[in-house]
Every structure is written in structure tokens, then in C-alpha cells.
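Retro notes
What went well: the complex prediction finally ran end to end.
Inputs used:
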Amino acid sequence: MAVGVLAAVLLAGCGDPDQKLRDNAAQTARTAASDVNTTRLVVEQLQAHRLWIQPARRMVDDAEKSLGTTADSFSTQQPSTEQSARLYEQVNSTLDDAVAAVTAVRIALGNSDLAAAERQLAALQLSGEDLDQVGELAK
Amino acid sequence: MKKLLGVTLGILTAIGGFVDIGDLVTNALVGARFGMHLAWIVLVGVIGICLYAEMSGRVVAMSGRPVFDLIRERLGPRTGLLALVASFLVTLLTLIAEIGGVALAFELASGVSYLLWMPLAALAVWLVIWRVKFSRLEQAFGLLGLLLIVFAVALFKLGPDWGQLLHQATQLHPIGHEGWATYAYYGIALFGAAMTPYEVFFFSSGGVEEKWTRRDLGTERTNVFIGFPLGGLLSLSIMGCAAVLFLPAGIQVGTLGQVALPVVVAFGKIGLAVVLIGMFAATFGAALETALSCGYTIAQYRGWQWGKFVRPREASRFHVVIIVCLVLAVLTLLTAVDPVKVTEYSVVFAAMALPLTYLPILIVANDPDYVGRETNGPVRNAVGLFYLALLTIASVAAIPLMIITKAGA
């Protein structure tokens, strides 16, 4: 039992570092895409007058916090090859764009400025698509 | 006519009372990540809870004594203590999650932080337990919880491809990026949510509160065999809504607001109002049930006077246990721990405690000293043992799967 656990731990630590970063990036992107798409759905419902601003603020607040945690967690990764460094930069940049778009929506809703929130829809759509692409990396 | 009304009311209460924060969060979360590929677990869980709730109700109707009292007497103080500790801790964790759920529902509606609502929610739970009659308390929140049927209506309104949903439900495997370990982990969580131990303790203790006798066996069985499966359909509709709206959009459910979103998409602001009241009723009702169950389990094990059928002064220690548990719930939530995360963990830990809860019930339901001629027949025992094997597998696998999957991440 103990030998099995030790072997599993050692094997887990000896994986291809590029692959590990790719897997991590994909997982991070899928989680981030979820928050971006939630924000987009909320703004679309607001736009269609199907949702009150109060719960919308709450939902976007939650999405922003979750996205911030996800982005912070990925930024602590250690890329060890040139290829993984490029991926690291690309994912961080995509996450920054996503955080910026969601934060802009949160600020707009905080100011009850629905027009400003709606203007972020295109950015949210783009961020979601970029994150979806990164999310497919692990396949 | 009066009897029919009573039976109908019992069924409606059972449906509305079936769904709690664990069911709301777990079903939405699973639907968003796996579509309907884990729907079969809800079916397995509902059959299991019907089986064991009927057994515990029968024990109460035949013996006039609550299940935990009999567990201690039949299995001895040590084994009884093991069952008590496991069930009590899981019920306490569930109570924390339910109080958090009530506060989150208010936060969504008002925008005021759940940390401010939570002490008020706990105080309201205590006041209702202290002042309101058992039957009124059970019926009021059970019936109000029926508003969650809005999920079933929303599922129709979202216009899903029913063939696709059915196809998903018959494919018992993970999809996309999800692995078998995550699939199994969430399967156990769903199983734990459907078979939460407090449901049985509340159901059987409620039988004593309402003074069930042999003549009430028919009503008890109708409530269980019609009310719980319809409650299970409600769970499936929550999962279905998430499968239709969130799965294609790549949205993972991590907040109570997200659970409500499919209803918003289907019905707009009115739908949101209905679903928020339903969520409040479901979580508040379950908070009452779990708080009472904390008191029931300890008081029944210790042989103290318990229940709402006596004045609070006569069951003071029972009420003190409830107050202490509510204070513990508030203190835990004041650490700003995410109530949704507490919910996710509570259903998995519930799965771990299931054999310790249900094995004693199976034993007592076979003892003619307590149930007379109403002991389990061979079929019930065979199914009961099969479920016990399932519960044991789920219990043993829960922690390793939690570690391997990083709690389903």
C-alpha cells in the first residue's frame, strides 16, 4: 500500500513539465470560461429586461472573484521550457483580458450603467472563445 | 374526504421537503458538467431513500418509539454511539450548509452580504422551532418548497431536445474532459444528497411527534412512495435545466445564483422571484429539519425528553442541543467559508456516514420485538442488503475519490 502511494507520488512528480502546464492551462481556461460565460449570460438577461440588477450584481461579483482566484492560481505556475513559457504568457494574457472584461461589467453594474455593461458583451464573447481554444489543449 | 386531504397534504409536503441545498447545488453542478449522464444515480438514490424511510416509518408506527432510541437499545451503547457520532456530525454539517443556503437566497434577493443574513437566519430557525407547531412547520415549508416545480416548468420552456436528454441519461459514462474518477466522485455526491441521513431521522421522529400508529402505515407509505419519487423528479428537472443551458455554454455551477439562472432565462423576473422563494423555503425548511434532527439524535440516544409535542421547558436539553448546533453553524459560517463548498462537502461526507445510519435501521426493522409481524419480507431484505452494499462502496470510495479528484475540480 505504502509503496503504491509512494510510486504514485513519484510518478506524479516526474511527468512531462510541458504536458503538465498544458493540462493545467486547459483546466484553468475551462474554469475561467465558465465565469466569463456566466457574466455574458447575466448581461444578456439584463439586456432583455429579464433580470433585476441586484441579483445580477451578485452573480457578476461571484464570477469576478472566482475568475480572479483562477487567474492568480495559474500565474503561480513555473514554466520550465521555452515552449511552456510561451504558453504561460499566452494563457496569462487571455486570462487578463477575461478579468478586465468581467471587472468592467461589475463596475458598470455597480454604477447601474447598463449600457456600459452591454458594451462589454463583445469582449466577453471574444474572451470566452479564446478561453475555449486554450481549454481544448489537453485533448 | 378529510383523510384524502391529509394524504394529499402529506404527499405535497414530502415533494416540497425532498429538495434541500444539497440537492439544489449538486444536481445543478452535475447537470452542468455531465448533462444527464448521472441521472441514474438520482433514481438509485430515490429508491434507496424510499426503502429506508419506509422501514424507519414502519418501526415508529409499530413501536411508537423513535429509531435512534431503538438503535441504542437493540445494538448497545457503543455501536449506537458510533452511529450517533457519524450521523450527528453529518447532520450538523448539513445544518451549516442549509443556514448558509438561506442566507445566500436572501443575499441574491437583496444584495446584502450573506454574512449579515446568516445570524438572522439562524435566529429565525430557532424562533420557528420554539414557537411553531410541528405539523404547521412541516407543512408550511414543504408546501412553499413546491414552488421549486418552476424548474420542471422551466425545463419545458427552455425547449430541450428530449431525445438528446434521454440519450444522455442512458449513457452511463463521463463526457468531454471529465474522467471516470470525477464521474464516480459526483455520483457519490448525488447519492449522498438523495439519501442524506437527516431525512430518515426527521421522518421517523416526525412520526413520533405526530403519534403514528399501525393505522397510519398506509398514509406513511403513500407519502414515501409517491412524495419522494416526485421529489426526485424535481431533482432531475434541476439537473435537466443545467444540462440544457450550462453544458453547451461550458458554464460550471459554483454559486446559488447560477442554480437559479435557467429559470431566469425561461421566465424572467417573475421566474426569479418564484425560484428565490422556493429556494428560501427549501433551505429554511431543511434548516428546521436538520436542527431538529441534531436535537432528536442526541436526545434519543441519551434518553432525554425530546420533541415538539411537549413544552420546551419539559425538553430543555433537547432545545439546548438545537441552540448549540445553531450557534456552531453561525460561528462556522462567520469564518466566511463558502456555503456552497460546505454543501458540496456535506453531501460527500453524508455518503461516508450512510452505512452507519442505515444498517441499524435494517436490523431494527427485522426485529419482531419492535415491529411485531411487520418485519421486512425477503424481497425488502434482499433490496435492503443490496443497498447496504452500495452504501458501503460509496462510503469507502468517497475519501480516496475526493483526494484523487481534488474534490471534483
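What we learned: The radius of gyration of chain A is 18 Å.
What to try next: split runs per interface for comparison.
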